[in-house]
Write a structure and sequence with these properties.
three-stranded antiparallel β-sheet, 2 domains, alpha+beta, single chain
């Protein structure tokens, strides 16, 4: 099944969900738009603006698959954040900074995306917690095996 999503109900989604770059000429914007993620902004009559979905918005959309909550609401934003933090702690961060270091979601980033919805299936707390417990055990097993395979310190 395809992952469907809607960002239209996010407050100020045009600014929260998109990165923009304004260039001196339309040709510069078009050159960037030839890349995988960028496109020229159809709302800019000058043709000098390129935009793309923000890395944070894109990552939150994909994270919803493992978080097991199909939308971010005012009521569930803290629970959504707790779940994505658990997923990232037992797997890896969805994003990296410019140096390749993990960049974990903040509660403020999740709250800024209240209104985001996807077609993922809702998971109960019990099912989600069992999944996290299993992933944590698998991560511990991998770490123990790696430590056992490592050469002994002199």
């Amino acid at each position: 099944m395809a992952l469907n999503w809607n960002i239209g109900r996010i407050r100020d989604y045009a600014n929260v969900c998109f990165d923009r770059r304004v260039f001196d000429t339309p040709e510069e914007a078009e050159a960037l738009a030839r890349g995988a993620d960028w496109y020229t902004d159809p709302d800019d009559a000058s043709g000098r603006t390129a935009k793309r979905m923000s890395v944070t918005t894109d990552a939150l959309i994909w994270a919803s698959l493992l978080v097991g909550l199909p939308e971010i609401t005012e009521k569930n934003a803290e629970r959504w954040h707790r779940r994505v933090a658990a997923v990232e702690a037992t797997n890896t961060a969805y994003r990296r900074d410019g140096n390749g270091e993990p960049l974990y979601f903040s509660l403020d980033e999740v709250k800024a995306h209240v209104g985001l919805s996807t077609n993922v299936s809702r998971e109960t707390e019990a099912k989600f917690n069992a999944k996290i417990k299993r992933w944590a055990a698998e991560k511990a097993t991998r770490a123990a095996r790696a430590a056992a395979a490592a050469p002994a310190a002199p």
